[in-house]
Amino acid sequence: MAQNFSELGLKPTYRTALFESDEPVDEEILRQFEKEVKEKIKVARLMIAENKESYDNQLKIQKLKDTIFAVNELLIKAKKNGAFASLIAARSTPKSLHCLAMRLMGERIANPEKYRDEKPKPEFEDPLLYHYAIHSDNVIAVSVVVNSAVKNAQDPSKHVFHIVTDKMNLAAMKVWFKMRPVKGGAHVEVKAVEEFTFLNSSYVPVLRQLESANLQKVYLDNKVDNETQDEKNMKSSGNTKHLSMLNHLKFYLPEMYPKLHRILFLDDDVVVQKDLTALWKIDLDNKVNGAVETCFGSFHRYSHYLNFSHPLIKDKFNPKACAWAFGMNIFDLDAWRRERLTDQYHYWQDLNEDQSLWKVGTLPPGLMTFYSTTKSLDKTWHVLGLGYNPSISMDEIRRAAVIHYNGNMKPWLDIAMNQFKELWTKYVDSEMEFVQMCNFGL
Ligand SMILES: [Mn+2]
Known about the structure:
- This protein is of the alpha/beta class.
- It has 2 domains: about 1-110; about 120-435, Spore Coat Polysaccharide Biosynthesis Protein SpsA, Chain A (Alpha-Beta Complex).
- It is about 45% helix and about 10% strand.
- The strands form 2 sheets. Strands 3-2-1-4-7-6-8 form a 7-stranded mixed β-sheet.
- Helix 3 (about 25-50) packs antiparallel against helix 4 and helix 4 crosses helix 6.
- It is globular, with a radius of gyration of 23 Å.
- The relative contact order is 0.12.
- The structure holds manganese (II) ion (MN).
- Manganese (II) ion binds near residues 22, 267, 269, 327 and 404.
- Manganese (II) ion binds near residues 22, 267, 269 and 327.
- InterPro entries: GAUT (IPR029993), Glyco_trans_8 (IPR002495), Nucleotide-diphossugar_trans (IPR029044).
- This is Hexosyltransferase.
- It is found in: Golgi apparatus membrane.
- It is a single-pass type II membrane protein.
- It comes from Ambrosia artemisiifolia (Common ragweed).
């Protein structure tokens, strides 16, 4: 696949966006990709027509025909991978996930006295313990992350998990951890993003942008013109789904946990396979973000994520700088506060209202915010690609402290890759009655 893209003269950024990315596939990118592929096919067809008369060009014709075929295959694959996977992700999984959330809600409504809110534990603010941040609306995914971390921790009682979800999933998430308390004395705090009241639209650019996008939507809806409702919905939803507060929450960790010095940020599509405590002791050389780098050859450089035709980007960043990944990051919160990096993030996010610096996602603003303040970690800490790359070696996976199912093929979906699924399912609490009822297909 890698060489196909460059051989066919297609931008490698498409490869990143359509096959490797952890963020939802952007319809606009898929459309652009389709347009370019169709353009390539057209040019190839024209050349064949022009060359038809001269017999000595047979070879060339055959080569062009092969190109048409290869490009078409790529398009079909991209559509399947992108649009189709998001379709499945949006329909079939939520069936089981919804079922689980509903059962948990039902349990809570049936037994209100069992689920009264408890006082926050002092451990939640104890800087001497090992703190984790997990931001997700997916109960089963979060339970796997926490369960795998606890099972592999030498002393679970020193580990504190700060789960933040949205208002809609708060009760379900709380009931889960009440019904299935974590083992070994580990500590779990569950909060809704709405409880962090400093995160409002006068402080957070993403929320302000969401509000103005919603205003635009109202304006579009009321406008009398010849667009159908579907077309309007397409236009407005395309922008807003990437601006979810839960996705951008990681940029506010120092303010959310003012007493803590370090926190380990984990995505909800990871599995922990080793004791991680060494991460809190690693020397970060006064840097803020400890992460594994993802570049190889010309791939996954800053130029793939940022628009280098913009003067501010060209001025400030090296296009060849190596990108790194979100998903397992050890953040030094003191250094973050000292360097005022949240202001940096706000600066870039404000400038990108018109999407002229980057298109979508949280990795581009992350790459900008933590440029020159990221310390590269040994690759065995965090092995990526289990959601799209079938050729990761099992040795590499076994050695990894954390494995990451970034990509479309999440382990809780029907389209998960079979060879990697078991590494996730072994941490699913399959004895839990609701998990059995809700058909997770384990
Ligand atoms: Mn992820």
